[in-house]
Amino acid sequence: MAVKKFVMMVAVVVVVMAGVVAAEGFKLCNMSEDDLETCKPAVSKPTPADPSAECCKALSGADLTCLCSYKNSETLPLLGIDPDLAMALPAKCNLTPPSQC
Hints:
By secondary structure, the chain is mostly helical.
């Protein structure tokens, strides 16, 4: 009986946590999923667009050091983002990239 209660409690915690993630959405380095989508045309091959004003605004609130940590990661390509184009984006938005990036 105690095991059944424990399993039920774990199931409730998992459902609550999934609801929190769904309500808040996906975030990466202080950029929401919508922010990332706004910048995606500027960081996607084969023909990247110039970053929009909305993209640059979203990027200005991002943690650029955190984003830089993904430059050699497989995460960005899985999101459809070219790492080299992503690393060039701060300069295109007149933002100062981290010195170690």
